[in-house]
C-alpha cells in the first residue's frame, strides 16, 4: 500500500532546482542587502549579524513555502519573508522605553487634530506649539521615534511588499478582500497627500530602496534630516489612517 505524505508540490519542484545549501549561497546577498537597508534606520546597538541570521531563517522558510501561483518570483517572495523575519526579531527585542512610545502616540494625535482643524498639512512649528515644546524638543522626539521603531508600512499593520504585490498568506472571503482593497486605496490616498518632500523621501526609501545617505545626497541634506522626514511621514500616515490602525 502506498504511503501518502503531506507534501507541498511547489516545494518539491523548488527542491529539484536548488538544495537548501545552494539556496542559502545564491540568496545570501539578498539577505545581507535587506539587513543593511534596515540597519540604516536602526540604532548602533542593533547587530547586523543578528538581522542576517534572522533573515536566513526567513529565506529557508520561503524556500519551503514558495508558491508560484501567488504571482511573484521566488526572489520577490523570499524578500518579503526575509524582511518579515528580521522585523519579528527586532520586535522581540524592543529597546525603546515606554516614554518614547507615549510621546509618539501624543505626536500622532496632535498632528491628526491640527490637520482635522485646518484641513492642511500640520507644520512643525504648529505641532511644537500645541505640544508646548520647542522645535528642538520636537525634532528630538522625531529622532527618538526613528531610533526606536522600524518605520515602514509595517507600522500601519501591513506588509508594504505584500500590499504592492497583492500577496496574502491565506485566501480571504469577499468581505476580507473588499476590506483589503479599501485599505490599499486609503493608504495610497494618504501617501499621495503627503507633503512633496516627505512623499519623495518615502518613494526613494521604499520604492527605489536607497539608504539614508543616498537619499541625503539626492536632496542635499543630512542623513539625520532624512531620518526626521521619514519619521514625520510615518507619523502623518498613522494619524491619517487612524480608522484602520487605531491609536
Describe the protein.
This protein has helices spanning 9-17, 20-39, 48-65, 74-92, 98-118, 124-131, 135-148, 160-165, 174-192, 196-207, 212-219, 223-240, 242-245. Residues 1-16 and 150-176 have low confidence and may be disordered. The chain is built from 13 helices and no strands. The protein is 71% helix and 0% strand. The termini are far apart. It has two domains: 18-92, Orthogonal Bundle (Rna Polymerase Sigma Factor, Chain: A), CATH 1.10.1740; 98-245, Arc Repressor Mutant, subunit A, CATH 1.10.10. With 247 residues, it is an all-alpha fold. Helix 2 crosses helix 4 (74-92), helix 5 crosses helix 6 and helix 7 crosses helix 12 (223-240).
Short overview:
The chain is an all-alpha fold and 247 residues long.
Helix fraction, binned, reads over 70%
Helix tally equals 13
Overall structural domain count: 2
- CATH domain class name of the largest domain: Mainly Alpha
Structural class: mainly alpha
**Main pleated-sheet profile:** none
Percentage of residues in strands = under 5%
Q: Tell me the name of the CATH homologous superfamily of the largest domain.
A: Winged helix-like DNA-binding domain superfamily/Winged helix DNA-binding domain
Instruction: Show unreliable segments.
Output: 1-16, 150-176
Number of strands: 0
Radius of gyration of CA atoms, rounded to a whole number: 20 Å
Quaternary structure classification: single chain
| Mean pLDDT score | 75
Annotate the secondary structure layout.
Layout: H1 9-17, H2 20-39, H3 48-65, H4 74-92, H5 98-118, H6 124-131, H7 135-148, H8 160-165, H9 174-192, H10 196-207, H11 212-219, H12 223-240, H13 242-245
Amino acid at each position: 500500500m502506498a504511503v501518502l505524505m503531506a507534501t507541498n508540490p511547489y516545494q518539491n519542484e523548488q527542491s529539484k532546482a536548488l538544495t537548501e545549501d545552494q539556496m542559502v549561497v545564491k540568496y545570501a546577498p539578498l539577505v545581507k542587502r535587506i539587513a543593511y537597508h534596515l540597519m540604516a534606520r536602526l540604532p548602533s546597538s542593533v547587530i547586523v549579524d543578528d538581522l542576517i541570521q534572522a533573515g536566513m531563517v526567513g529565506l529557508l522558510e520561503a524556500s519551503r513555502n514558495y508558491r508560484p501561483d501567488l504571482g511573484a518570483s521566488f526572489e520577490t517572495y523570499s524578500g518579503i519573508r526575509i524582511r518579515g523575519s528580521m522585523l519579528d526579531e527586532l520586535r522581540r527585542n524592543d529597546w525603546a522605553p515606554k516614554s518614547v512610545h507615549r510621546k509618539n502616540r501624543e505626536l500622532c494625535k496632535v498632528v491628526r487634530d491640527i490637520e482635522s482643524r485646518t484641513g492642511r498639512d500640520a507644520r512643525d512649528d504648529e505641532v511644537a506649539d500645541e505640544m508646548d515644546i520647542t522645535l528642538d524638543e520636537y525634532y528630538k522626539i522625531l529622532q527618538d521615534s526613528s531610533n526606536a521603531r522600524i518605520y515602514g508600512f509595517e507600522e500601519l499593520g501591513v506588509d508594504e511588499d505584500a500590499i504592492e504585490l497583492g500577496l496574502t498568506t491565506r485566501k480571504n472571503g469577499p468581505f476580507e478582500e473588499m476590506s483589503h482593497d479599501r485599505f490599499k486605496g486609503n493608504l495610497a490616498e494618504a501617501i499621495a497627500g503627503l507633503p512633496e518632500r516627505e512623499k519623495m523621501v518615502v518613494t526613494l526609501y521604499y520604492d527605489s530602496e536607497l539608504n539614508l545617505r543616498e537619499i541625503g545626497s539626492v536632496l542635499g541634506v543630512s542623513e539625520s534630516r532624512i531620518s526626521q522626514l521619514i519619521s514625520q511621514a510615518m507619523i502623518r500616515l498613522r494619524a491619517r489612517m487612524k480608522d484602520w490602525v487605531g491609536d
